[in-house]
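Risk register update: the risk of archive-format incompatibility is retired. Evidence:
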Amino acid sequence: MTALKQVAAVIFGAILGAGNAMAVEEAQYTVVLEEQNFEVRNYEPHVVAETLVNGDFDKAGSKAFSRLFDYISGNNTSSQKISMTAPVAQEAESEKIDMTSPVGQQQVNGKWAVSFMMPAGYSLDTLPVPKDPEVTLRQVPARHMAAVRYSGFWSEKAYASNKANLDAWIAKNAFRAVGEPIWARYNPPFMPWFLRRNEVLIPIEMPLNNQN
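Archived output:
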């Protein structure tokens, strides 16, 4: 990681770790079922900036981070329309976008798709276009998600264990998984492991009598 990317990572950590001093927008959802550390949530539609990377589970997030951080830090072309003036001058503006959480990671065709959720005030039409062709914008529809929340290290072992627990809970409640699992992280790397908020999220279809 270059010195510049290290500085960026520190800034990212400061934003996510600032707590009440600097609120970080999160994906909007309502909890419709809660049982211990398991939940079913209704998520609002939102847009994510996403990039695909090769690599193992533990390194994928770090590999993708710089691309996504560059995008929200200004490596984009603004879609803002500029009023006609004289003389005529036109240039692409770089727009900075607020950090949000969580950072999502899921497997897609053998690669890892890592994403930053975009703030709710943006849509696909109003977000600036990424300059990096490896960063794409994607609309995520409203959906039901089964979730399990846990603390601890960012390891594939912890992810696999909690995913297995979530799979069992989904089966016990007669829900049906309709998408790939997502690993969600809400904290910076320097957050102590026992204070970290981690989640596994799985899109589900609920029985009609349980839907809200």
